[in-house]
Design goal:
mainly alpha, 457 residues, two-stranded antiparallel sheet
Length: 457
């Protein structure tokens, strides 16, 4: 497979036979460009130190071979310090696996379906914390009840199942009254299940119950530990690739958890706003700078809030690209944004503390991050993520069509929906980088003009 320079990645992410309308993956494994297993292994010293600078360049040029994608992602997302040794990473991995096991066991004690190889899609408690004794709920959580009472039907079935004290959902009969956190967590479990069965349903991988339940378990545990955000729709789309790429459930959890450290602000909700609105506002500012005519047109149509781009930012283009191409896009984004201090920023262990404050060569940063660093020195402004510029590049590419054909927001949505499966991930990243440079240049010129007239930028 590796020696076929035109090998697509669809063979690694098999699509169900009946799903004939799934977009084909454009990304192809190319010898000499795609990061191969051989080059990846050669990038480590005998002790385990990783030459990340060379890897970033390779990933930006040709992506990562699917066979090593999971372990490379762990470094891109800051799960491990590239300057750590094999032994240090083994210790961190073991500690994290033990921590995940403890969290999962705690969740299992509160709701025994966790870790059972099953998942639920029906509500299990009411808003005030009372168990729901609906027979369908009990059967979903306890399929053995259906085997135990195959002849029951009608009211008899309802009575038998509703009064069953053997239900796993009610197993801990001496469980103390639930606090607000536990109630809120249990209220989300069925929503997680509903999203899980809809996530990447075209892939053969998710025909297996064990993989669906693994995805549900990880999202349920995450919802418990992240008390600020919990679970929100869209997280299953972000977590699904981790399940497929990392065999160990705990490793997949921590990879997802590190991704959420970057993105959780998008999911943070209040009574009046959703976190991603900040990024939508930033998108509006970027379009206003690089294409004021398009921005004005969108505002005239009532789209000045850019809510039509909500999905792109929330799930990082998962719906606009094929599964394989979306993974290719993600790893290029992460390589471009890479910061060698990610691990020390995320990890609170003594190992991480020891690496803080050490000067890093600018070559160790991703290309996008290097440009942000240079600009920050000049302007002092916080940088925008590359995802904003990716959306901006899509809008810029469709600018002519939007200006001439969009007569309302429905037209805007239709034009953008037409891009599904028709985008090239590498070109999209190149377009984002080009717009990023243009934006920084225009902002720099604007700041200089303001300073000349005595106004603080």
């Amino acid at each position: 497979m590796w020696f076929d320079t035109g090998a697509p990645t669809d063979s690694f992410y098999e699509v169900r036979a009946e799903c004939s309308d799934v977009p084909k993956t454009r990304f192809k494994i190319k010898a000499g460009k795609t990061l191969s297993e051989r080059r990846w292994k050669a990038a480590f010293s005998p002790e385990g130190h990783l030459d990340m600078t060379r890897m970033l360049s390779r990933i930006q040029r040709g992506g990562i071979h699917p066979t090593i994608r999971g372990e490379v992602w762990e470094f891109l997302l800051g799960c491990y310090d590239p300057k750590s040794t094999y032994e240090e990473r083994d210790q961190i991995r073991q500690r994290r696996r033990e921590q995940y096991a403890k969290w999962k066991e705690l969740c299992c004690q509160m709701f025994p379906v966790i870790g059972s190889g099953r998942y639920i899609t029906a509500p299990v408690i009411t808003e005030d914390g009372q168990p729901i004794h609906d027979p369908l709920v009990l059967l979903e959580a306890n399929p053995q009840l259906a085997l135990a009472h195959p002849q029951d039907n009608g009211n008899a079935e309802h009575s038998e199942l509703s009064t069953s004290n053997s239900s796993e959902t009610n197993k801990p009969t001496n469980h103390p009254p639930m606090d607000k956190k536990e109630i809120q967590w249990k209220l989300t479990l069925h929503q997680i299940g509903l999203d899980v069965v809809r996530t990447d349903r075209t892939l053969v991988f998710y025909e297996k119950q064990e993989n669906l339940s693994k995805l549900w378990d990880i999202l349920a545990v995450y919802a418990w530990i992240d008390t600020d955000v919990g679970y929100c729709q869209g997280m299953s789309d972000l977590c699904s690739p981790m399940i497929m790429l990392l065999e160990d459930e705990a490793d997949a959890f921590w990879c997802f958890e590190h991704l959420m450290r970057r993105l959780r602000g998008n999911f943070r909700c209040t009574d009046s706003s959703v976190g991603v609105e900040t990024q939508l506002s930033n998108l509006g500012l970027v379009i206003q700078v690089i294409d004021p005519k398009l921005h004005q047109h969108l505002e005239t149509l009532g789209g000045g809030d850019y809510l039509f781009a909500f999905r792109m930012l929330m799930v990082m283009f998962r719906r606009e690209f094929s599964f394989g191409d979306s993974l290719y896009l993600w790893e290029m984004m992460w390589a471009l944004e890479y910061d060698p201090d990610f691990f020390s920023m995320y990890e609170e262990s003594e190992t991480a503390e020891g690496s803080k404050g050490k000067p890093k060569s600018i070559s160790q940063y991703g290309k996008f991050e290097r440009e942000n660093m240079k600009n920050k020195i000049k302007s002092g402004e916080a940088p925008l993520p590359i995802s904003v510029f990716l959306v901006a590049s899509v809008l810029k590419e469709k600018s002519s069509k939007l200006l001439t054909e969009a007569r309302g927001l429905d037209d805007v949505v239709k034009i953008l929906n037409d891009i599904t499966g028709n985008l090239d991930a590498k070109k999209a990243c190149a377009g984002a980088m080009k717009l990023h440079r243009k934006y920084l240049k225009k902002q720099s010129c604007r700041s200089r003009k303001l300073r000349k007239i005595g106004v603080k930028p």
